[in-house]
Design a protein that fits this description.
The chain has 11 helices and 11 strands. The chain has 299 residues and is α/β, with parallel strands linked by helices. It folds into 3 domains: 4-87, Orthogonal Bundle (Arc Repressor Mutant, subunit A), CATH 1.10.10.10; 94-162 and 272-294, 3-Layer(aba) Sandwich (D-Maltodextrin-Binding Protein, domain 2); 165-270, D-Maltodextrin-Binding Protein, domain 2, CATH 3.40.190.10.
Length: 299
């Protein structure tokens, strides 16, 4: 196996054509340097230099070997730098899962942008997944991070979590409805009104918690429509078919036919949690966690 340091000695001598001058540049004594060159020739079974008094000249085989040695050393330097960048979390890849609220709120973009600017060579693999699927993928090391609705228990031994989004729900209603303007909306104003709800698979399902929150608030809606996408629910509201409760950040992407009212007495909110493996101590993990925590909106 070739010794990279020995190759560096060879290149130094070949470029200087003089052991003494090369020894000064390489910070090594002449005798050890000469022994290294002779040892390399013996290992290769190849005469690299012609000795001419004080000077050394490369043989034809030596010139060909020099070109290959330079290429190998350059590749080794690139590999070493690549390793350092990997170790510092400056390159490589991260896999991130997310639920739709992380997108609608801008949380995902706010988390990725500063991290990407600081580490332009690091690649992201993004996938929309339910909360439970993300937690399973973390345990199987298929994800590095997740943005989930339902986090693990605080004392979970393998997965850590922190809440990074906490938004109130707003009432979305047709702009032509009498409740779109005027005094604050009361629970009694919503009793029996048609609503569209977002339905997801357990444990992220929304219907039962929504109805329970309505009951606590003092009204009972009529569930007229169900959809898997909050944006689709806004289209139904815009068509004048129903009311909906949606996360506050959806206001900026709603059709103009939709109005919004605050419901300060309604205790449901949209919460998103960042999750990651506790045992993963890579620098990129810590940096992205800091970026995501810093990206959360004021509560």
């Amino acid at each position: 196996m070739l010794d990279l340091q020995q190759l560096r000695y060879f290149v130094g001598v070949a470029e200087q054509e003089h052991v003494g001058r090369a020894a000064e540049l390489l910070h090594i004594s002449q005798s050890p340097l000469s022994r290294q060159i002779m040892a390399l020739e013996a290992q290769l079974g190849l005469r690299l230099f012609e000795r001419q008094r004080q000077r050394l000249r490369l043989t034809p085989e030596g010139r060909e070997f020099l070109a290959e040695a330079r290429a190998l050393l350059a590749r080794a330097e690139k590999l070493e730098e690549r390793g350092r960048r990997l170790g510092a979390g400056m390159t490589g890849s991260l896999s991130v899962g997310y639920v739709e609220a992380a997108v609608h709120s801008g949380l995902l973009a706010r988390s990725l942008r500063p991290f990407r600017e600081a580490r332009p060579d690091l690649q992201f693999h993004l996938s929309a997944q339910r909360s439970a699927e993300q937690l399973d993928a973390l345990l199987q090391r298929l994800l590095d991070f997740g943005f989930v609705y339902t986090p693990p228990a605080p004392d979970d031994a393998e997965i850590a979590s922190v809440r990074v989004l906490d938004e109130p729900l707003l009432l979305a209603l047709p702009a032509s409805d009498r409740l779109a303007n005027g005094p604050p909306v009361r629970p009694a104003d919503l009793d029996g009104r048609a609503f569209v709800t977002v339905v997801r698979r357990a444990p992220d399902t929304n219907r039962a918690p929504f109805l329970a929150a309505c009951s606590r608030a003092g009204f009972m809606p009529m569930i007229a429509y169900e959809t898997a996408d909050p944006l689709a629910s806004l289209e139904l509201v815009a068509a004048g078919l129903a009311f909906a409760t949606v996360q506050a950040s959806l206001r900026k992407v709603a059709p103009p036919e939709v109005a919004f009212r605050d419901l300060p007495w309604f205790d449901r909110r949209v919460a998103v949690h960042l999750v990651w493996r506790r045992a993963d101590a890579r620098p990129a993990i810590e940096a992205f966690r800091d970026a995501a925590i810093g990206a959360q909106s004021p509560r």
